[in-house]
Design brief:
With 533 residues, the chain is mainly α. 59% of the residues lie in helices and 3% in strands.
Length: 533
C-alpha cells in the first residue's frame, strides 16, 4: 500500500513531487490552515464564553456556592470516564505507561485542584467578573515563584549523600557546579558528575567511593520525610540508578563511617575541599531558569493587578471588596503548586492523555472537596450545622428551580445591583431565573452552560496545540483576557450585573495584557530574529 501512495515532498507534506508550491495569499489558504483558523477562532470565542458563563453560574446559585464547587467537579467524572472507556476499547491513545502511572500522584494533584476550585468558586462569589478575569492572571508570577522554589536542581542522590558525609565528618567544603558540557557527557554515559577535589587533587568520583557503603536502617518517619522531599525535588529515583551504585539514603549521622578519603592525611583535609556536582546554586538557578523577559513580564502583570485593585485597597473596610479580591487571588497558589507538581510527576511518562488525567484527578478532587465543607461554610457565612440542608436545597435549586431564600420566608434580600458583592447571603434565590437583579438564567442552564463551555474550551486548546503550536495556544489564551473583560461590560451577556470599565480597571487590564505579551512572546521573537527554532 505504501509503495502505491504518491510520494510527498519533504519540505511540504501536502505537496506531491512535481507539484508547485503555492505562492502569495494562496499558500495561506489550504484545508489545514483553514481548519486551524477555525480551531483558533472557536478557542477564543469559547474561552470568552467560559469566563462569562462561570460568573453567570455563580449568580444563578448565589446561595449554594459550595454545592456548585462540588457538582461541577462531579460532572467531570462521567464525562471524562466515558471518553476514557471509549479510548481504551477502540484506540491505543491510553498506553500501558499511562495505566502504570502511580495513583497516589493523582491524589496529590486532586488535593491541590480541590483547593483551587474552592477558592475560585466560593471565594469568587463577591468578586465582579472583570476582576476575576484579571486576578487569575496572577497565576503567572505565582507559578514562577513556586517553580523557582520547587524545581531547583539540588543534585542527585549521590550529591546529597556526599554532602551529609562531609558535614558529619566536620570537613569544611565548598560546592561548585560541574558545568553543562560535563553534565551532558555524564548523562550520556548514565554516570554522575559528583566528585571531590582536595587541594586541587581529584580523589575520585563519589559513586565508586560509596559503592560498598552499607546503608543504615531507616525508620518510618525518615522514609516519610524523604518521600516528601522526593515529591518536591527535581531529581528522581532513576538518578540514583544512573550513578551505578546500590546507594540508599539513610540517617545522616550514620553515614560518617563511609570512607571517602582513604590515603588522604588530615592535614590535607584541613585545606581546600571542593564538591563538584550538578546542583544549581540559587544565583545560577535564578539567572537560568527564567529569562529576563519573563521576569519583567511577571513584574508588569503584578503591577497591573495592583492598579486594578487599588480602589478596593484604599477604600475597602475589613469586610469590603478587597477581602474578596484577596481570597480569590489566593486561588493562584494551589493553581501554581498543582501545575508545578504535575510538571515534576509527569517526568516519568512520555505523554499523558488529557481525558485520562482529568478523570483520575477529578475522583480525589471531589472526595477531598467534601472534607472542605466546614471551610466553605466559614468562607460563606453559613453555619456548619446548616451544611447538609444547604447542599440539599442547592440540589433542588439546580435541578428543579426551587427558591428557598425569599422575602416570603422572612429574608431581607437585597434588590440592589450589588447583590452578591457585599457579603453572604445578600440575595434572594433566583433558581428559576425569576429575579433579573440576581440571575435571569435558571440555575440548571447556568451550570450546564458553564460545563459545556469549560470542556469545549479545553478541547479546542488541545486542538490548537495539536494542529498548530504551543505558541499559538498562548496567543489564543491571551486574546481571551481582553475579550472576556469586554464581555463583562455588555448587558446582553451579564444583564444588570454588567459593569463598565473604570479608569483603574481599564488601566490595570492594559498593563496586565502588556505583561502577558512580554512574558509569553518576547523570547520567541528574539529567538526568531537570531535564527533559532
Amino acid at each position: 500500500v505504501l509503495r502505491t501512495m504518491p510520494k510527498r515532498n519533504s519540505e511540504n507534506d501536502n505537496l506531491i513531487d512535481g507539484e508547485e508550491a503555492p505562492t502569495g495569499y494562496r499558500k495561506y489558504i489550504s484545508k489545514d490552515n483553514l481548519l486551524l483558523l477555525f480551531y483558533v477562532v472557536m478557542a477564543v470565542l469559547v474561552g470568552t464564553a467560559n469566563r462569562v458563563t462561570f460568573k453567570l453560574m455563580q449568580y444563578s446559585m448565589i446561595n449554594y456556592i459550595y454545592f456548585v464547587s462540588q457538582i461541577t467537579t462531579f460532572i467531570y467524572l462521567p464525562v471524562n470516564f466515558i471518553v476514557v472507556l471509549a479510548k481504551l476499547l477502540f484506540t491505543k491513545d491510553i498506553t500501558p505507561e499511562m495505566l502504570a502511572f502511580p495513583s497516589w500522584k493523582f491524589l496529590v494533584m486532586g488535593l491541590f485542584d480541590s483547593l483551587q476550585g474552592l477558592f475560585i468558586v466560593v471565594g469568587g462569589v463577591s468578586v465582579p467578573g472583570i476582576m476575576q478575569n484579571l486576578l487569575l492572571q496572577g497565576a503567572v508570577p505565582v507559578t514562577m515563584l513556586f517553580s523557582l522554589l520547587m524545581l531547583r536542581n539540588r543534585g542527585d542522590d549521590t550529591t546529597r549523600i556526599a554532602r551529609q558525609v562531609l558535614v558529619n565528618k566536620g570537613i569544611s567544603f565548598k560546592e561548585e557546579y560541574a558545568g553543562d558540557e560535563e553534565i551532558e557527557r555524564a548523562n550520556k554515559r548514565g554516570d554522575s558528575v559528583c566528585r571531590i577535589l582536595v587541594n586541587g587533587r581529584d580523589v575520585g568520583k563519589i559513586p565508586e567511593l560509596l559503592r560498598h557503603a552499607k546503608a543504615p536502617e531507616e525508620d518510618v518517619i525518615l522514609v516519610f520525610f524523604q518521600w516528601i522531599a522526593s515529591c518536591f525535588c527535581c531529581s528522581s529515583k532513576e538518578e540514583s540508578h544512573k550513578t551505578g551504585g546500590s546507594i540508599q539514603s539513610g540517617r545522616g549521622d550514620s553515614l560518617s563511617h563511609v570512607t571517602l578519603f582513604s590515603g588522604i592525611g588530615q592535614d590535607e583535609l584541613d585545606g581546600e575541599v571542593v564538591l563538584i556536582s550538578n546542583a544549581n546554586d540559587w544565583g545560577r538557578h535564578l539567572r537560568t531558569f527564567y529569562s529576563a523577559a519573563q521576569y519583567i513580564g511577571a513584574t508588569v502583570i503584578l503591577a497591573g493587578l495592583v492598579v486594578s485593585v487599588w480602589p478596593d485597597l484604599v477604600g475597602g473596610g475589613g469586610a469590603g471588596p478587597w477581602a474578596g479580591d484577596l481570597l480569590f487571588f489566593t486561588a493562584t497558589i494551589p493553581i501554581a503548586v498543582s501545575g508545578v507538581y504535575k510538571e515534576i510527576a509527569f517526568k516519568s511518562v512520555s505523554d499523558m492523555d488529557v481525558w485520562y488525567l482529568n478523570g483520575y484527578v477529578a475522583v480525589p478532587q471531589f472526595l477531598i472537596g467534601l472534607a472542605y465543607a466546614p471551610l466553605a461554610a466559614i468562607m460563606t457565612g453559613l453555619a456548619i450545622e446548616d451544611i447538609p440542608s444547604n447542599i440539599w436545597n442547592g440540589l433542588q435549586c439546580w435541578l428543579v428551580g426551587t427558591n428557598f431564600i425569599t422575602r416570603a420566608e422572612g429574608y431581607d434580600c437585597s434588590e440592589e445591583l450589588t447583590c452578591g458583592q457585599d457579603g453572604f447571603p445578600m440575595c434572594c434565590d433566583s433558581c428559576d431565573g425569576s429575579l433579573p437583579n440576581v440571575s435571569s438564567i435558571p440555575a440548571l442552564w447556568g451550570v450546564i452552560g458553564y460545563m459545556v463551555a469549560n470542556i469545549a474550551y479545553n478541547v479546542f486548546l488541545v486542538l490548537v496545540i495539536k494542529h498548530g503550536s504551543a505558541a499559538l495556544m498562548y496567543a489564543t489564551s491571551t486574546l481571551v483576557l481582553p475579550l472576556g473583560s469586554i464581555a463583562f461590560t455588555i448587558k446582553a451577556f451579564l444583564g444588570q450585573h454588567a459593569k463598565a470599565f473604570d479608569k483603574f480597571t481599564g488601566a490595570g487590564l492594559a498593563v496586565v495584557l502588556v505583561g502577558l505579551l512580554i512574558y509569553r512572546f518576547v523570547d520567541m521573537i528574539i529567538a526568531k530574529c537570531r535564527g533559532k527554532n
